[in-house]
Amino acid sequence: MPVTDVTTDAENLTMTVVADLAAPVERVWAVYSDPRQLERFWGPPGWPATFTAWDHTVGGKGNYTMNGPRGEKASGTWEFLRIDAPHSFEVLDAFADDQGTPDPDLPSMRMVFTFEPSSAGTRMVTTSYFESVEALEQVVQMGAIEGTKLAMGQLDAVLQDLRDYAQGKGTTVELLDDTHVRITRLVDGPRDLVWRAFNEPDLVKKWMLGPDGWEMTECIVATVPGETYRNSWAPVGDTEGEPFGFEGEVLIFEEPRRAVTTERMQGQPTETLNDMSLYEEDGATLITVLIEYPDKETRDMILATGMADGMEASYARLESTVLAV
Predict the structure, then answer these.
(1) Which CATH superfamily, name and number, covers 163-324?
(2) Other CB atoms closer than 10 Å to residue 192's CB: what's the count?
């Protein structure tokens, strides 16, 4: 987690975020001056941002919308007040509507980003200036501190080449909080083929095989919000066990980059929210799945089943399937 300190100062009406980044200043500047790279972390997990306007000049604006997993939206706008590449820039940050018009009922803030060389690479300091104590407290109560930490936690993957960041690490599981888990796996293959492998029944049946000694008996895919999917498995031969399966509803389907679904074991009420995104770089695709559990106990119980090992076996088969297409 690159954020090392977050400090609020009611006397000076500021919130300061310090982050230590393992990349040179020029690389960090490139990330903050390119909306396509900003979109990969400007917004906490589950709320990816899309920049709909970008004029990186003094007086210009950058408008963005963060899209929640259940269709929620939260928009904002930057007005660039000062740009001193690659050392610092300053914006007026405000909540806004979809067209980038600031919302007068919500607080705005002046944000100063500075980048300085450090032994690790770059120390970034972001200082937000508020007009009143009430505005500062309102933003904090809205979850700005935790949201910033979670959003910045995605930055390491953006700063490094994708293969350097994830190749050879297998399936990685990160506990973000009591109810959210992030799972990542790099697949050596283009995003469009990985997307097909998740959404075409003939391909799904080649890799989503279940435990050893089991076979997939049902594969009903869903590609439209509101539709339901269903996958089932059963033991083969002398393998012991009762048939089982999972089902759920599609909430978001944005080919070929993001799909959000609910998931529950057939016949069980407990439901998770699975937010999958695909990002391609240099012919490789990073699969990121953000899972939201109803509570910590359910999270720990499911992780204890060996879910990560099962997912790694499946993703390894998925990679072989993609390479064979």
Answers:
(1) START domain (3.30.530.20)
(2) 15
